[in-house]
Amino acid sequence: MQAIKMEKPGSYDVLKVVDIDMPIAKTGELLIEVKATAVNRTDIVTRENKNLTAPYPILGVEIAGVVIENHSQDQRFQPGAKVCGLVNHGGYANYAVIPSERAMLIPENLDFEEAAGLPEVFLTAYQTLYWLGELKENETVLIHAGASGVGTAAIQLAKQLTNAKVIVTAGSQEKLDFCLRLGADYGINYRTEDFAKEVLAKTDGQGADVILDFVGASYWDQNLASIGTDGRWVLIGTLGGTMIEQINLRDLMQKRISLKGTLLTPRSDAYKAKLTNEFMEKVFPYFMDKKIKPIIDTVFPLTDVQHAHQYMENNQNIGKLILKMY
User: Fold this and answer.
1) What is the CATH number of domain 2-120+266-324?
2) Among the CATH numbers 3.30.1050.10, 3.30.450.190, 3.40.50.720, 3.30.750.24, which is that of 133-261?
């Protein structure tokens, strides 16, 4: 089969199409003919990780495709069933294996490209908003990188599930306009505006109840000013750096802030399975009713993977970048 492998850690040009053996599904797993996968920031982080040693993993943490073999007891996933879900690497390939407990039957109104843009961003958004952020009905959430894959998923979930007041940041008016059309209440251009001042102005000085932070260090002071008393601050990315020179812990204590850091990819199989099952129960009806949808920016052929990675690194996308296999 064809797959994308790294020659070595480095820039996007280390990604090459290679021929390798098909994976073998074990007990409890499904063998999937992959029709589409997606590019995620975690793929770029893995690709650039100079601590990795050969043999390097096949990138790709989410897939959509057709069941070829079912080695589990779950009768929903008979050969021919259309599924999507999270994998532990291996998505950039013609075939992949996935634990049956992490597979989701694709809603009939989604094609493979749309379904490939569902697992990572929607499960991340659901986890951070509700399991970690504990977002409640009518609360205010500040979502950074609002036009990203997770951002566009989080906007929809926050509005549909809990009717939250949604404030987003993005770096262009085009991205902000898209977020507003998707359901966000307010958009802030972080390049031209002080988002902390704007958040306080839009919340009558109360601040946000929940912050989804993809940026990290460079946003520390503004996030601290933006969050309200008893606020929940969920750190899910460090695009703006990892080191902060000085932190006054009393600032966190005075507002009674809960600061939580998370990464979904390294979570245990059991955690991902529980998250997947709850997500299917509580959110899939919204996909069926077309009230929530994956946002797809561009679909690339698998052989154009270098361009897809470069596109994401340049922050050009609104929503997901998909790699198709056919």
Assistant:
1) 3.90.180.10
2) 3.40.50.720
Which part of the chain has CATH 3.40.50.720? Answer: 133-261
- As given in the structure block, the two tokens for residue 44 are 């770029």
Contact by Cβ (8 Å): 92, 305: yes
pLDDT tens for 83-109 read 999 998 999 999 999 999 999 999 999
- What 3 state SS string does 188-230 have? EECCCCCHHHHHHHHCCCCCEEEEEECCCHHHHHHHHHHEEEE
Cβ pair 179, 187 in contact under 8 A: yes
Query: How many C-beta neighbours within 10 Å does residue 18 have?
Result: 14
pTM over 0.85? The answer is yes
Dig out the tokens for 278 from the structure: 């709850």
